[in-house]
Specification:
The complex is a heterotrimer.
Chain A: H1 2-7, H2 10-145, H3 149-162
Chain B: H1 2-27, H2 44-55, E1 60-67, E2 73-79, E3 81-86, E4 89-94, E5 108-110, E6 113-118, E7 121-125, E8 143-145, E9 147-148, H3 153-178, H4 186-205, H5 210-232, H6 243-259, H7 263-270, H8 280-323, H9 325-371
Antiparallel strand pairs in B: 1-2, 3-4, 3-9, 5-6, 6-7, 7-8
Helix pairs in contact in B: 2-8, 3-5, 4-5, 4-9, 5-9, 6-8, 6-9, 8-9
Chain C: H1 2-31, H2 36-63
Helix pairs in contact in C: 1-2
Classes of the chains: A mainly alpha, B alpha+beta, C mainly alpha.
C-alpha cells in the first residue's frame, strides 16, 4: 500500500486529467459527434431503404395476387362461356332433332292422312263403280228375271229372307 | 506520386529522429556509471531492478542503451522536457541535464533551486545542501519531492496517442462528409466505433440516455486500448500501468456517474425503500462507500494491476534468457524464453483489448445504474 | 510474510471463483446457445469484479 502511494505521481495525475479533459472535448466535438451523426444518418437511411424494399415487395405481392385473381376470374369466365356454348350447341342439336322429328312425323302423318283419304276416295269410287256396275248388272238381271212374275216373287222373297234387320 | 510523397515524408521523419537520437547519445556520453538501467543485466536481482525501473515513469525516452568499445555507456533515445513546481515557482529544462542519473548524484541548478532525480522522481534539495544524503533505507534526508508536471515518457505517450486518435477519427469524420462508407483505415475503425456504441454503451446505459455518454466511452476505450497496445511495443511505454493515469480515468467515470445520477439513484443509495428504518443509515454508508470508493478503486486497480503484471511477466520471461543460461545452456534458455514470451505477448494483446473493454463496460454499467429509470416505483 | 500468505489465499479463492464463473457460463451456453452474448457479457463483468478483488488483495498484500 505504501509503495502504491509512493508510486503515485500527483504531477502525472494532473497532466493526465488535463490532457484527457482536452482530448474528450476535442474528440466529442470534432470526431464522435460527426461520426455518430453520419452513422445514425446512414443507419436510418438503410432502415428506410429496407422499409421501402419491404413495401415494394408487399406491393408486388399484392399485385401478383391481384393478377392471379384476375387470371382465375378470366379462366372461370372462359370455362363458363365454353360450358354455355356447349350447352347451347347441345340444345340446338336437340332442338333441331326434335323439330326434324316433329316435322318428319308431321309429314308422315300428313302422308298417312293423304294416303288414307286417297284410299278412301279410291274405295268410294270403287264402291260407286261397283254399285253402278252392280246396279247395271242388277238391272239387266232384274230385267231378265222380271220377265216372269213368279220369278219376281220368289226373288223378292229370297231377298227379304236375306235382309237381316239390323 | 502519392507514394513518393509519403515515403519522402517518412524518410524526413526518420532522419530527424535519428539526428536527435544521435545528439542525445553523444550528449550523455560523458557520464556513464551509477545508472539504474545501466550495465549488464544478468542476475535475478539485476533483472528485478531493471523491471522495477521499466514499469516506473521516466523523464527521458530511451529506446536502448549499450556500452561502446571505449567502455562508455550510450543511450539511444531523446530527452524530454522537465517542468517542475519548486519553492521558487515553475522551472523548465531538458531531462538531458540529469545525464541519465537516477540516484540523486547529478544536481541540476535552476535559478536558486537545486534539483536531483532519485528513482524516477525529482527532488528539491533543502536550502544549503549541495548533495543528497540518504538514510539507511535509501530515503533522502535533506530533499523533498516537487510537483512534477514534466512531459515524462507517460505524458509523451498520452500525447502521442491523443494526437493519433484525433488524427484518425477526425479524418474518419471527414470521410463521412463525402460518402457514407469510409475507405482505407477508416474502414477498420468504423466497426470498433459501432462495437463500442452497440455492445457497450447501448445495452448498459439504455436506449434513452446512451447518446450523451457515448463520446466519453469511445474516447476512454480507444485511449486505454491504444496505450495498452503501445505498452506492448518495444518503445517501452507503461502508461496504463501508471496508477496516476488509471486513477484519473476512474475519477472521470466517478464524476460522470455521480453528476448524472437521477433522483432514484440517490434515493436508492441514501434512503432505500422497503427496509427497516434503523438499517437505512448503515446501508446508506455501505452504498456511499461502494459508489465513491469501491467502484472507482476497483476500476483503477484492475487496469493498473493487469497492465503492470503483464509488463512484469513479459519482461521476466525475456529475462529467462539470462537468468537460466547456466542451467539450460544458451540455446535452451533463449529458446524457452522466446517461446514463452511470444505466447504471453499474444495473451497480452488480448488483455490489452479486454482491459479497455472492461473499463469501458464497467464505466457504462455504473453510468447506466445512475441514470436508470424505475417505472415500477 | 503473513500478508503474502493472505494475498495467496485471496488468489486461491479468486481462482476457485473464476473457475465457477467460467464453468457455469459454459454450462449456460451449452444449455441455451442463443443466449451466448448475454451470458458472456455477464460473465466478463463478474470475472472483472472478482479480478479487481484479487488484484486489490495482491497489491495490499505486497505493499503492506
Amino acid at each position: 500500500m505504501e509503495s502504491l502511494f509512493n508510486d503515485f505521481s500527483p504531477g502525472l495525475f494532473i497532466m493526465q486529467t488535463f490532457i484527457l479533459l482536452i482530448l474528450i472535448f476535442l474528440m466529442v466535438k470534432f470526431a464522435w459527434k460527426p461520426i455518430m451523426n453520419s452513422l445514425n444518418e446512414r443507419e436510418s437511411g438503410i432502415q428506410a431503404a429496407l422499409d421501402a424494399a419491404e413495401n415494394a415487395k408487399k406491393e408486388m405481392q399484392n399485385l401478383q395476387s391481384d393478377n392471379e385473381k384476375l387470371l382465375k376470374e378470366a379462366r372461370a369466365e372462359r370455362e363458363g362461356m365454353l360450358k354455355e356454348a356447349r350447352e347451347m350447341k347441345d340444345k340446338m342439336i336437340a332442338d333441331a332433332k326434335e323439330e326434324a322429328q316433329a316435322q318428319a312425323s308431321k309429314m308422315i302423318a300428313q302422308a298417312q292422312e293423304s294416303i288414307r283419304s286417297e284410299k278412301q276416295a279410291a274405295l268410294a269410287e270403287l264402291k260407286n263403280q261397283v254399285a253402278t256396275i252392280s246396279v247395271e248388272i242388277a238391272e239387266k238381271v232384274v230385267r231378265g228375271e222380271l220377265e216372269d212374275k213368279k220369278k219376281q216373287l220368289s226373288l223378292v222373297d229370297k231377298m227379304l229372307g236375306d235382309v237381316t234387320l239390323n | 506520386m502519392k507514394i513518393v510523397q509519403k515515403s519522402i515524408k517518412l524518410l524526413t521523419l526518420v532522419a530527424i529522429a535519428l539526428c536527435s537520437f544521435q545528439s542525445f547519445a553523444s550528449d550523455s556520453g560523458k557520464k556513464d556509471n551509477n545508472q539504474n538501467d545501466g550495465g549488464v543485466v544478468d542476475t535475478k536481482s539485476e533483472v528485478d531492478k531493471y523491471i522495477q525501473h521499466h514499469i516506473q515513469d521516466a523523464h527521458d525516452f530511451t529506446l536502448f542503451s549499450y556500452t561502446n568499445d571505449a567502455g562508455e555507456r550510450k543511450h539511444v533515445g531523446f530527452p524530454l522536457p522537465v517542468i517542475v513546481w519548486t519553492s521558487e515557482g515553475l522551472k523548465t529544462f531538458m531531462s538531458s541535464k540529469f545525464h541519465h542519473d537516477d540516484n540523486g548524484e547529478e544536481i541540476v541548478t535552476a535559478g536558486n533551486v537545486k534539483l536531483a532525480k532519485i528513482h524516477g522522481k525529482i527532488y528539491e534539495l533543502d536550502a544549503g545542501a549541495s548533495k543528497v544524503d540518504f538514510d539507511a533505507e535509501h530515503h533522502a534526508t535533506n530533499a523533498h519531492k516537487v510537483l512534477d508536471f514534466s512531459i515524462t515518457k507517460s505524458v509523451f505517450g498520452i500525447l502521442v496517442v491523443g494526437f493519433l486518435m484525433l488524427f484518425w477519427f477526425i479524418r474518419l469524420a471527414r470521410q463521412y462528409k463525402k460518402k457514407s462508407i469510409p475507405t482505407g483505415f477508416g474502414r477498420a475503425l468504423e466497426p470498433l466505433v459501432i462495437y463500442v456504441r452497440d455492445e457497450i454503451a447501448r445495452p448498459n446505459i439504455g436506449e434513452k440516455h446512451y447518446r450523451k455518454f457515448t463520446g466519453y466511452l469511445l474516447t476512454v476505450f480507444f485511449f486505454i486500448w491504444l496505450l495498452n497496445l503501445a505498452g506492448l511495443t518495444p518503445l517501452g511505454f507503461n502508461v496504463t500501468g501508471q496508477i496516476a493515469v488509471t486513477a484519473a480515468l476512474a475519477i472521470f467515470t466517478l464524476i460522470i456517474y455521480t453528476a448524472s445520477g437521477n433522483k432514484h439513484y440517490w434515493k436508492h443509495m441514501l434512503w432505500m425503500d422497503g427496509i427497516p428504518v434503523f438499517v437505512k443509515p448503515i446501508l446508506a454508508i455501505i452504498e456511499l462507500a461502494g459508489a465513491f470508493l469501491i467502484k472507482p478503486f476497483s476500476l483503477l486497480i484492475r487496469l493498473f494491476a493487469n497492465i503492470t503484471a503483464g509488463h512484469i511477466v513479459v519482461m521476466s520471461l525475456i529475462a529467462i534468457m539470462f537468468v537460466m543460461r547456466e542451467s539450460l545452456g544458451t540455446v535452451g534458455s533463449t529458446g524457452l524464453s522466446i517461446v514463452l514470451s511470444i505466447l504471453i505477448a499474444l495473451i497480452e494483446v488480448l488483455v490489452a483489448f479486454l482491459q479497455a473493454y472492461i473499463f469501458t463496460m464497467l464505466s457504462a454499467l455504473f453510468i447506466g445504474m445512475a441514470v436508470e429509470e424505475h417505472e415500477h416505483h | 510474510m503473513y500478508n503474502l500468505i493472505g494475498a495467496g489465499l485471496v488468489v486461491i479463492g479468486a481462482g476457485i471463483g473464476l473457475g465457477q464463473i467460467g464453468g457455469k457460463a459454459m454450462e449456460g451456453i451449452a444449455r441455451q446457445p442463443e443466449a451466448t452474448g448475454k451470458i458472456q457479457t455477464a460473465m466478463i463483468i463478474v470475472a472483472a469484479l472478482l479480478e479487481g478483488l484479487a488484484f486489490g488483495a495482491l497489491i495490499l498484500g505486497k505493499g503492506a
